[in-house]
Amino acid sequence: MALNGLSAKILRVDEEIAANERIEATSKVLNSNLSVSETRELINQVKAKYSPNVVPESKQIKSAIAKLDKLEAMALGDASKDELRRLEEALEKKLLEVKRLIS
């Protein structure tokens, strides 16, 4: 169950505090009949409470990375030079934005 992600080790707190957080989160999940994605969001909120410097992964960024990883060399080989240039421009533009945010 996803609520196991609220361990003392992950939250970096005493086991008693972690247990209380798990109990409270479990109660919210059951009383509000939360979906799996809502439960994950709740868990991320609890984790953020104890690790404010840790930002939960963005689903959009995670999805973009997965799509780029799946882009096969064969598909790139079949693309026109114009398509490849547009892809290159789009990737370079995003890369500049990412570098600016990292700096």
Question: Which features does this protein show?
Answer:
0% strand, 6 helices, 103 residues
Which SSEs are present, and which pair or pack?
Elements: H1 8-11, H2 15-32, H3 36-50, H4 59-70, H5 73-78, H6 81-102
Instruction: Give the helix proportion (percent range).
Output: over 70%
Largest sheet: none
Order of SSEs, N→C?
HHHHHH
Structural class: mainly alpha
Tally of individual domains:
2
How many helical stretches? 6
How many whole angstroms does the radius of gyration measure? 20 Å
Report the average pLDDT across residues.
Answer: 89
Described by the principal axes of the CA atoms, the overall outline is elongated
Note the beta-strand portion: under 5%
Tally the beta strands.
Answer: 0
Terminal CA distance: 37 Å
Low-confidence stretches: none
